[in-house]
Design brief:
Order of helices and strands of chain A: HEEEHEEEHHHEHEHEEHHEEEEEEEEEE
Structural class of chain A: alpha+beta
CATH topology of chain B: MetI-like fold
Number of domains of chain A: 2
Largest sheet of chain A: 6 strands, mixed
Shape of chain A: elongated
Number of helices of chain A: 9
Helix content of chain B: over 70%
Oligomer: heterodimer
Number of strands of chain B: 0
Strand order of the largest sheet of chain A: 6-7-8-3-9-10
Distance between the termini of chain B: 43 Å
Shape of chain B: globular
Number of strands of chain A: 20
Distance between the termini of chain A: 36 Å
Number of helices of chain B: 11
CATH class of chain B: Mainly Alpha
Bound molecules: adenosine-5'-triphosphate, magnesium ion
Largest interface: A-B, 42 and 29 residues
Number of domains of chain B: 1
Structural class of chain B: mainly alpha
CATH class of the largest domain in chain A: Alpha Beta
Strand content of chain A: 25-35%
CATH superfamily of chain B: MetI-like
CATH architecture of the largest domain in chain A: 3-Layer(aba) Sandwich
CATH architecture of chain B: Orthogonal Bundle
Strand content of chain B: under 5%
Chain lengths: 382, 279
């Protein structure tokens, strides 16, 4: 998809370029409810036109952070800047920011049209302009036939679009979306993810989306901020997060991963050697590791980066493990192999099913060999 | 699950209803009695209802009562709504528990005490007693009822709807009138009607706080009954019962409608039908 590539390039350029001024700056923000710190010293820069995702498990503070950007909650400490001006204590009705709520929060006593027009009316926009902009917005989200309906007469997907239209129509500097697709079923959710991307491109507004669905974050976002218990633990592009997670927590949260605990033996010319007792193997990883030899490190290996074979690899091959097949999951496009190593540790390997399933060469209780190239694994210090 | 009505439960139900409503039914029935003697049935007639409209004293009392009920219900609605908003929307503040206790105290306070304390207050302030002091007294105790109804409705309202309005640029006051009030309208109606009927049939507090020239309908009825029950009193009482019954009926329907609407919204939010995408 060339448009996706274009989007990635455009997005990447913005924050890679050092000269680019951050559009939204969150500086050392904390938020406590009583003695409980929901957000703990978070700093974050978001750039103009980005589609930024906040990703994390339930209760990690995603909504709280978003609400502080919207002005619905004020930080206990720290500062929030939007487009150069300090917004830390500005109330929501004076911020150039609109939010789409998890429950959509449509006004039940107003029609779709009136819901969308509400924000413009508050601005004192002239009638004719309100009518025109509402019409345009309803066209954008394909809701024209439903303009006169009340929210309770709409399907979940339609209500989601009304909520989106309502916060886009004011042309805010930033749109905040709190789990916008959580209430939709899987098929519709996937379709809507791409619509969201398209709409964001058309309107050119900065989007910040909250989600606990890593696949959703990977699909829609130009960058992802991964959160853990009130802190941001990594901010990077989806590919970087997946290929070079900053910690075990991130590696495990995004996608599946095999983790091995090990000891760093040496780091010579960009290659680290790691002894993993639970894999009974020394791993070679092409990565500059900032740690002293002898330090405890972890090795992360994505299942699809492990090649699985019945035949023994040729002599001299590195990073090889062997074990017996415990279980095979056939997922249509993929097969998932659960392999038990001699040490007792279980490892997962995934292979795409390229050929049609005529015979399955690997079966239960087979002795198999797993290999990973030195570029495939990642060494984690945390 | 509805259980079948056994003979025992039926009897219990009948006895219960009889205990509550036989006296009232008797009163209503005798208001249509032809005879001047209250206890002797002499055939159906509407003559006592006709006679009501000749009775200037009674009409004056009815007018005082009606005005008082409208004014005090409206006053109680405003104050009770404010109390409900404070109790549900302003989070924790110093003295919140005390405040809610004070708001709801009149619900359990004996009327005699409410009446007496207000009388002492008005005397101390040297206010001349009449319709105005009665209205203040009625607002005082009806506010608690309105606050209960409004608070219950506000507590179940999805906060994020109001937040969305503010996020879209509406200031808090505007949000309240344009978003909150329409959504709790059935609760407000119910609260007003409740306050209206409470004021309409109050005797004790009104007697304490009124002056010589303002007499309400319950006070008029009470003073007449002390001289003996007349069919005319039966008729006016029947009208009063009718009014109160209608008020309570509308209030409970309004509450039921708002509750159903709330449940329907909650259900739809929890399990939205996903398909039906326009194309
Ligand atoms: N008003 C509040 N008062 C007290 N605690 C709160 C309040 N709002 C949030 N919290 C707490 O702060 C933490 C973070 O909540 P938040 O709603 O931001 O989580 P979240 O990441 O959005 O989770 P989810 O994915 O479940 O929506 C939670 O532990 C929650 O209990
Ligand atoms: Mg949340």
């Amino acid at each position: 998809m060339s448009r996706d590539a274009e989007r990635l390039r455009r997005g990447r350029a913005a924050w890679a370029e050092l000269a680019a001024q951050p559009f939204i700056r969150v500086v050392g923000v904390s938020k406590s409810f009583g003695s409980y710190a929901a957000i703990d010293n978070v700093s974050l820069d978001i750039y103009r036109g980005e589609f930024f995702a906040l990703l994390g498990p339930s209760g990690c503070g995603k909504t709280t952070l978003l609400r502080m950007l919207a002005g619905l909650e004020f930080p206990t400490a720290g500062r929030i800047e939007i487009d150069g001006s300090d917004m830390t204590r500005v109330p929501p009705y004076e911020r150039p920011v609109n939010m789409m709520f998890q429950s959509y929060a449509l006004f039940p006593h107003m029609s779709v049209e009136q819901n969308v027009a509400f924000g413009l009316k508050q601005e004192g926009c002239p009638r004719s302009e309100i009518a025109r902009r509402v019409r345009e917005m309803l066209a954008l989200v394909q809701l024209e036939p439903f303009a006169k309906r009340r929210p309770h007469q709409l399907s979940g997907g339609q209500r989601q679009r009304v909520a989106l239209a309502r916060c886009l129509v004011k042309r805010p500097k930033m749109v905040l979306l709190d789990e916008p697709l959580a209430a939709l079923d899987k098929k519709l959710r996937e379709k809507t993810q791409f619509e969201l991307i398209n709409i964001q491109e058309q309107v050119g507004i900065t989007f910040v989306i909250v989600t606990h669905d890593q696949a959703e974050a990977m699909t829609v976002a130009s960058r992802i901020g991964v959160m853990e218990r009130g802190r941001i633990v990594q901010v990077a592009t989806p590919a970087e997060i997946y290929e070079a997670p900053a910690s075990r927590y991130v590696a495990e949260f995004i996608g599946d991963v095999n983790l091995f605990e090990g000891r760093l033996l040496d780091t010579a010319n960009g290659t680290a050697r790691i002894r993993c007792d639970d894999a009974a193997c020394d791993f070679l990883v092409e990565q500059t590791v900032n740690a002293e030899p002898g330090a405890t490190v972890w090795l992360a290996l994505r299942p699809e980066k492990l090649a699985i074979d019945l035949a023994s690899p040729e002599a001299g091959a590195v990073n090889q493990l062997s074990g017996t097949v415990l279980d095979i999951g056939y997922l249509g496009s993929l097969s998932v192999y659960h392999v038990q190593l001699a040490t007792g540790k279980q490892v997962t390997a995934v292979e795409t099913n390229r050929a049609r399933l005529v015979r399955r060469p690997i079966s239960w209780n087979d002795q198999v060999h797993l290999t990973a190239s030195p570029e495939a694994a990642v060494v984690l210090l945390r | 699950m509805r259980q079948g009505l056994s003979a025992v439960t039926m009897t219990a139900l009948a006895l219960g209803y009889a205990f509550l409503y036989v006296p009232i039914l008797l009163l209503v029935a005798y208001s249509f009695n032809e005879s001047k003697l209250v206890t002797v049935w002499a055939g159906f007639s509407l003559r006592w209802y006709g006679a009501l409209f000749e009775n200037q004293q009674l009409l004056a009392a009815a007018w005082v009562t009606l005005r008082l009920a409208v004014i005090s219900a409206t006053g109680a609605l405003v104050l009770g709504t404010l109390a409900g908003v404070v109790l549900t929307r302003i989070g924790r503040f110093a003295g919140r528990t005390l405040f809610s206790g004070l708001v709801f105290a009149p619900l359990v306070m004996p009327e005699v005490i409410t009446g007496l304390s207000l009388l002492l207050l008005f005397v101390a302030l040297d206010w001349s007693r009449g319709p105005a002091t009665m209205a203040i007294a009625h607002i005082t105790f009806a506010t608690a009822y309105v606050a209960v109804v409004v608070q219950a409705r506000l507590a179940t309202l999805d906060r994020s709807i109001e937040e969305a309005a503010m996020d879209l640029g509406a200031r808090p006051a505007k949000t309240f009138f344009v978003i909150t009030v329409p959504m709790i309208a059935p609760g407000l109606l119910a609260g007003w009607l409740l306050a209206f009927t409470l004021s309409l049939d109050d005797l004790v507090i009104a007697s304490f706080t009124t002056g010589p020239e303002a007499t309400t309908l319950p006070m008029y009825i009470y003073s007449k009954v002390r001289l003996g029950v007349t069919p005319e009193i039966n008729a006016v009482s029947s009208i009063l019962i009718g009014l109160v019954a209608i008020g309570v009926l509308i209030a409970s329907v309004a509450l039921k409608v708002s509750e159903e609407r709330r449940q329907r919204d909650a259900q739809r939010a929890a399990a939205p039908r996903a398909a039906m995408v326009p194309r």
